[in-house]
Write a structure and sequence with these properties.
Number of strands of chain B: 2
Order of helices and strands of chain B: HHHHHHHEEHHHHHHH
CATH architecture of the domain at 32-55 and 78-226 in chain A: 3-Layer(aba) Sandwich
Strand order of the largest sheet of chain A: 6-7-8-3-9-10-12-11
Distance between the termini of chain B: 18 Å
Largest interface: A-B, 32 and 25 residues
Radius of gyration of chain A: 21 Å
CATH topology of the largest domain in chain B: MetI-like fold
Oligomer: heterodimer
Number of strands of chain A: 12
Order of helices and strands of chain A: EEEHEEHEHHHHHEHEHEEHHHEE
Shape of chain A: globular
Strand content of chain B: under 5%
Radius of gyration of chain B: 24 Å
Largest sheet of chain A: 8 strands, mixed
Number of helices of chain B: 14
Shape of chain B: globular
Chain lengths: 331, 328
């Protein structure tokens, strides 16, 4: 049984000019201790997928369909009060900007202690001792003194380390990291990712790593899901997706990443831009930009289907006779 | 911390000096006290004697120094009309005004903040809409009209509360209090509601908009993602972050309540400083007006100092800024 299973998730934003579907029929799973990368352009629905798992979508956004199953238990329809015990305790979260995710009025120690006491039922002394250990674990120098410091007294990178400690301190089985390094200095990004990966390996925590940085995914993730216009375009083991992309969009995405090993004259570029949620084309959402487009792509929307490798891709190129049936959600 | 208080007090000195100059200038340019004091019939010799006695033959600057010297000792001379020391009159009236003002401010905070939090958290509930509608009345109706309406309903029609005065008071030293008698408390109800209603609606709307703002922030989302209880998120994390603007406005409004208690005191014939002031204005009783002006300025200075100290207590970022100016 996978740790987390998302089935046919659909997230809608009702607006004055009709309902926008930000996440459409998304299915995937994450195993114990696994790192799943979720990659895509801004607006592809990757962050919204992440926050809807812990049900923190900004209203009026709402989960309009599908299931989220954690350890065999559905969590998309339980009361919010029960959901509160899932957040932090079973699923931790790390957000993009460490400068704004910590409450400026409380010491980092207070915020750690508060989180642990909410979920672990431990006393003040024990909680404080553990808080210091967590700060040491995430590499805050002088943790025993710095525990009483306020967030503004730390740099961005240090704050993101504190956020990681906060996300992990109640020992969740899964962490949803939403662009954890995007707001950081390039020089610090690698350190923070390495730290996150090391801690999760030590504690056996699975990671759902949402990012637009293919480099981070390639180095960190076990499997990767590529999202486009609210749907998963391709999902599979990270090596396969990077080296042998089965979906033309993934292929284009990989071609646009600079590489040190191959000398390339110009980076390739996918023509056009991702459609807005208000006018997603008929058929495959990628068809107007796809170099391999054919008639079927313009009329029928492909679901994820088997390819000649371990990847699943939502592309009619892989609809061979006998394999014609869309696999649906066996992902 | 100590240096901070001292620097704030030093900054208050020019403010107080300016206000002193203005109130002192009133003596020189609003009417002639000598003719007022001498009445209709006097000889030139009498006039000169009084001018010398009052020190009015001295240069302006010397007179101002003398005025300051007296003011620091809380000595503002005699009221032209009542022929009693202004300081006595003010001390007599101050408890009434302060009790009324603080009761009004307390009501405004004790009701305004919870209503603001509620309307911020449940902004679509019918109760929130009801509060917001009511608050429009508080914001838009002038104070005297609210006072008169309250008198009409509760004193005239229902006859349950007194329409004027302070009721019985108890003297504790020079301070007279209405808090200790039933009639004193009953007399306090209508004026304090009248005076506090505007501030209450203002605070409610402020807390509401600040709550809406703060609830959208990342750290609130993160607090929820950490699984904290609603109570901890709403009150521990959200409300505390709304406090800085609320303290600012409340501080300014407390000053305003005390200064503008004039209208309420007039409507309810409340024997406070405001009533004393309005009577002084009617009679061009300049010593009272000057003293009142100085006193209100002093109150504003003190309240601002307290507000600054409260910032310091609430927001740790400002503490850092005090230690190393400009440093993050």
């Amino acid at each position: 049984m996978p740790l987390l299973e998302v089935k046919n998730l659909r997230v809608e934003f009702p607006t004055r000019r009709g309902t926008l579907v930000a996440v459409d029929d998304v299915s995937f799973h994450i195993d114990e201790g696994e790192v799943l990368g979720v990659v895509g352009e801004s607006g592809a629905g990757k962050s919204i997928t992440g926050v809807s798992i812990i049900r923190l979508i900004e209203p009026p956004g709402r989960i309009a369909g599908g299931q989220v199953i954690l350890n065999g238990r559905r969590i998309d329809n339980i009361p919010l009060e029960e959901m509160r015990h899932v957040r932090g305790k079973e699923i931790g979260a790390i957000f993009q900007d460490p400068l704004t995710t910590l409450n400026p009025l409380y010491t980092i120690g207070h915020q750690l202690v508060e989180t642990m006491q909410t979920h672990l039922g431990i006393g003040d002394k024990e909680a404080r001792a553990r808080a210091i250990r967590w700060l040491e674990d995430v590499g805050i120098p002088g943790a025993a003194q710095r525990i009483d410091a306020y967030p503004h007294q730390f740099s961005g990178g240090m704050r993101q380390r504190v956020v990681i400690a906060l996300a992990l301190c109640a020992e969740p089985r899964l962490v949803i990291a939403d662009e954890p390094t995007t707001a950081l200095d390039v020089s610090i990004q690698a350190q923070v990712i390495a730290l996150l990966k090391r801690l999760c390996r030590e504690h056996g925590t699975a990671i759902m790593l949402v990012t637009h940085d293919m480099g981070v995914i390639a180095e960190t993730a076990d499997r990767v899901a590529v999202m486009y216009a609210g749907r998963i375009a391709e999902i599979g083991p990270v090596r396969e997706v990077v080296k042998h992309a089965r979906h033309p969009y993934t292929d284009g995405l990989m071609g646009s990443i600079p590489s040190l090993s191959h000398k390339v004259e110009r980076l390739t570029q996918i023509e056009g831009s991702m459609p807005r949620l208000t006018d997603i084309p008929r058929g495959c959402a990628f068809n107007p930009r796809c170099p391999k487009v054919f008639d079927r792509c313009r009329t029928e929307r492909p679901d994820l289907m088997k390819t000649d490798g371990p990847n699943l891709a939502a592309c009619w190129l892989h609809a061979a006779p006998g394999r014609d049936e869309a696999l649906g959600h066996a992902a | 911390m100590f240096a901070f208080i001292v620097s704030r007090l030093l900054q208050a000195i020019p403010v107080m000096l300016t206000v002193s100059l203005i109130s002192f200038a009133m003596f020189a340019y609003v009417g002639d006290p000598v003719t007022i004091m001498l009445g209709q019939d006097y000889t030139e010799a009498q006039r000169e004697a009084l001018v010398r006695e009052l020190g009015l033959d001295q240069p302006f600057f010397i007179q101002f120094i003398e005025f300051l010297h007296n003011a620091v000792q809380f000595e503002f001379g005699l009221s032209y009309r009542l022929a009693r020391p202004v300081s006595d009159l003010i001390l007599e009236r101050m408890p009434a005004t302060l009790e009324l003002s603080f009761t009004a401010a307390f009501l405004a905070l004790a009701i305004g903040v919870p209503m603001g939090v509620y309307t911020g958290l449940y902004r679509d509930s019918w109760l929130s809409r009801f509060f917001l509608t009511i608050s429009l009345i508080g914001v838009s109706l002038p104070t005297f009209l609210i006072g008169i309406l309250l008198i009409l309903v509760f004193a005239v029609i229902l006859g349950v509360l007194p329409s004027f005065g302070r009721g019985e008071t108890v003297a504790i030293g020079w301070w007279t209090t209405g808090f200790l008698t039933v009639s004193g408390l009953r007399a306090l109800i209508l004026p304090s509601i009248t005076l506090g209603l505007f501030q209450m609606t203002l605070i409610m709307r402020l807390v509401r908009s600040e709550m809406l703002e703060v609830l959208r922030t990342d750290y609130i989302k993160f607090a929820r993602a950490r699984g904290l209880s609603n109570r901890a998120v709403h009150f521990g994390h959200a409300l505390k972050n709304t406090l800085v603007p609320v303290i600012t406005i409340t501080g300014l409004q407390l000053g305003a309540i005390i200064a503008f208690a004039i209208v309420t005191e007039t409507v309810f014939q409340w024997p406070g400083m405001g009533l004393l002031f309005i009577q002084a204005v009617a009679n061009a009783d300049i010593p009272i007006m000057a003293a009142y002006l100085l006193l209100i300025a002093l109150l504003f200075v003190i309240i601002n100092l307290i507000v600054d100290l409260l910032y310091y207590a609430v927001d740790p970022r400002l503490r850092g800024g005090l230690r190393a100016a400009g440093g993050r």
